[in-house]
Amino acid sequence: MIRIGQGFDVHQFARDRKLIIGGVEIPYEKGLLGHSDADVLLHALADAILGALGKGDIGKWFPDNDPAIKGIDSKVILEKVWQEAKKESFQLENADLTIIAQKPKMAGYIPKMREIIAGIIEANVEQVNVKATTTEKLGFTGREEGIAALAIVLLSKKQ
Hints:
This protein has one domain: CATH 3.30.1330.50. 30% of the residues lie in helices and 30% in strands. It has helices at 40-53, 58-61, 74-87, 110-120, 139-142, and strands at residues 2-14, 20-21, 24-25, 31-32, 90-100, 128-133, 146-157. The strands form two sheets. Strands 4-1-7-5-6 form a five-stranded mixed β-sheet. Strands 2-3 form a two-stranded antiparallel ribbon. Helix 1 packs parallel to helix 3. It starts with a strand and ends with a strand.
């Protein structure tokens, strides 16, 4: 059995917050606003996995009005979602992830993001593709108001 899922997430920039993308802290003058650490890339990936499983989204699993998870590390969110996939005997075939941001530049951080993500979802780094793009100064990302991320995953059921 093969399942495909897609995910999308957006967070706006905020002062006095760390910028964490793909589990990597990136030095920048602003971070992202959110109930968690606001890691848009890991949120999009978690949503893609939940979509492939037919189990809703991270808002259902990790509601932003739950004080018990305020400030939660998004690596924990992804780990819990991945445990749900494993419980149903799914494994990752591949994940293709896109960060949409005018600034900061992401290229130097992508190898570490791939390594972190692969470690959490028990995959080879080659199964996890991460890329970044700008919107050529168009829209909210182009105006440097925030960052968005897209994710698509292909899962297969273990025999």
